[in-house]
Amino acid sequence: MKDRLENFIKSHRADFDDLEPRSDTWSKIQKELRQEDKKKDYIWLWKAAAVVFLCISIGLAVERSINTGVDEIAETNQSQKSRSAELKQVEGYYTQLISQKRSEIKSVIDKKGLVDVELLKDMEQLDNMYSKLKKDLKRNQNDERLINAMIQNLQLRVEILNKQLRILERISKHEEDEKISV
Q1: For residue 113, is it left (φ>0), alpha (ψ between -120 and 50) or beta?
Q2: Contact 158, 98 (CB under 8 A)
Q3: Within 10 Å of residue 157's Cβ, how many Cβ atoms?
Q4: Interval 105-130 mean pLDDT
Q5: d(C-alpha 119, C-alpha 38), whole Å
Q6: φ, ψ dihedrals at 22, nearest 5°
Q7: Among the four residues 61, 93, 102, 111, which has the most C-beta atoms within 10 Å?
Q8: What are the pLDDT digits (tens) for 35-73?
């Protein structure tokens, strides 16, 4: 079948060539071809713009992540410094308070000639625990649990000393009441 069609076209070629298109048809075709060429010119421009946009976006994302990392490090260092300063301030307050309470207890004990071995053992244990916590904090500087444990240790020592002072005051008051009644 293909051969018959081909033979027919070859034998009647002159019949097909008798019609020519209008002159404006070729000009329209040429205009359309030029527009397609212009479209192709714009396509590469759009591709270039997309590549530039992609590169700028990646660059900004990388810069932002680097700056965020630097900012986080700076914030971490700042927060560590502020925590360290706060801890030193709290530690100084409680240490001064503990020293004051100890001197009050010592003066009462010296006046009355009393010796409280249990209190001394408890205070020594708390001092040792606090020293261990301080050593651990040097190794793990950001550990909130250690900082809280240190503060709780200091608070516990102040509480024990306050209770001991009240006990000693009651003993002193009781002895004075006995002297008065005798």
Answers
A1: left
A2: yes
A3: 22
A4: 75
A5: 96
A6: -65, 160
A7: 102
A8: 666 656 667 777 888 889 998 999 888 888 777 766 666
21 SS3 class:
coil
pTM above the 0.85 mark?
no
Cβ burial, residue 164 (10 Å; 0-12/13-18/19+): buried
Per-residue tokens: 109? 């004990």
Are 91 and 152 in contact by the 8 Å Cβ rule? The answer is no
Residue carrying structure tokens 């630097």: 70
**Residues 119, 148, 69, CA angle at the centre, nearest 5°?**
155
Report the distance separating Cα 127 and Cα 48, nearest Å: 71
Q: Where are the alpha helices (DSSP H) in the chain?
A: 2-11, 13-16, 23-112, 117-139, 144-181
